[in-house]
Amino acid sequence: MTERFSSNELAVLLERSAWFRAAPADLRRQLLDAGRIESLAAGQRLFTRGDADDGLYCVLDGLIRIGAASSTGKEALLAVIEPVNWFGEIALFDNRSRTHDAYAERDCALFHVPRAALAALLERTPAHWHAFGLLLAHKLRLAFEAIEETALLPAAPRVARRLLLMAGSYGEPGALRSVLKVPQEDLAMMLALSRQTINQVLKHFETQGALKLRYAEIEIVDADKLREQALVERA
Q1: Residues 166-204: pLDDT tens digits?
Q2: pLDDT score, position 174
Q3: 3-state SS of the chain?
Q4: Helices 155-167 and 195-207, interaxial angle, to 10°?
Q5: Residue 213 contacts by C-beta under 8 Å, 6 or more apart in sequence?
Q6: Is the peptide bond before 84 cis (omega within 30 degrees of 0)?
Q7: pLDDT of 234 above 60
Q8: Is beta strand 101-104 parallel, antiparallel or unpaired with respect to 45-47?
Q9: Domain 7-149, what fold?
Q10: Residue 235 has what pLDDT?
């Protein structure tokens, strides 16, 4: 538990989420009333694949890694979730266990709405299922796009599109963030490409004036040039 945010600061911060901002006022109020702020230290696991559902989360500060590991320790990284994005909604719908692992890349502050509170909220107002359905549908669209790009696009446009997606907070409206705190190794895992391929593509983008590369950071210098790299016809 942490007191890093006052009630007003928390409300303003959550309003940066397009999903939360578009939700009915009554739902927003009930989520604020039911949720609590929790801290997670860098490297600490939030939940593991197969764990029971414990509710819905929103990243307020820090980074959360979503992925899975094989029995040999090989990691599949699906996404790195930054502020202010929600996650954990799948289990809300099917009442089954967690689909993947989630742990802190850096020290994190999370807004957590427990499962019991969500169940009570939705029992009182079943119409609010629609809002959570929109959150799930948004994630499903992103997943379908990623599958399609993996099957049909060369490495360079896939990298460019993922960088633009991350800079835009996975579809949130508004200006692109210019600095992405993502190591090249993480980008390689998310796109199922080799570390060498990622480095070659990023170096090419840098020579084109689209990016600047720094340790564990990628700065988008010219978003239009990066968009040009993303505009490659599917095979």
Answers
A1: 998 786 666 688 999 889 999 999 999 999 999 999 999
A2: 61
A3: CCCCCCHHHHHHHHCCCHHHHHCCHHHHHHHHHHCEEEEECCCCEEECCCCCCCEEEEEEECCEEEEEECCCCCEEEEEEECCCCEECCHHHHHCCCCCCEEEECCCEEEEEEEHHHHHHHHHHCHHHHHHHHHHHHHHHHHHHHHHHHHHHCCHHHHHHHHHHHHHCCCCCCCCCCCEECCCHHHHHHHHCCCHHHHHHHHHHHHHCCCEEEECCEEEECCHHHHHHHHCCCCC
A4: 80
A5: 202, 203, 206, 219
A6: yes
A7: no
A8: antiparallel
A9: Jelly Rolls (2.60.120)
A10: 47
Which two tokens mark 148? Answer: 């399609």
**Structural domain boundaries in the chain:** 7-149, 153-230
Q: CA-to-CA distance for 208 and 119, rounded, in angstroms?
A: 51
Round the average pLDDT of the chain to a whole number and report it. Answer: 92
CATH code reported for the domain at 153-230: 1.10.10.10
Please tell me the pTM assigned to this model: 0.88
Measure the CA–CA gap between 82 and 68, rounded to whole angstroms. 18
Note the pLDDT of residue 199: 97
The first and second tokens of residue 145, run together, are 């796009």
Both tokens assigned to 62: 């820090």
**The pair of three-digit structure tokens given for residue 11, joined into one six-digit string:** 């409300």
Rounded Cα gap, residues 139 and 145, in angstroms: 10
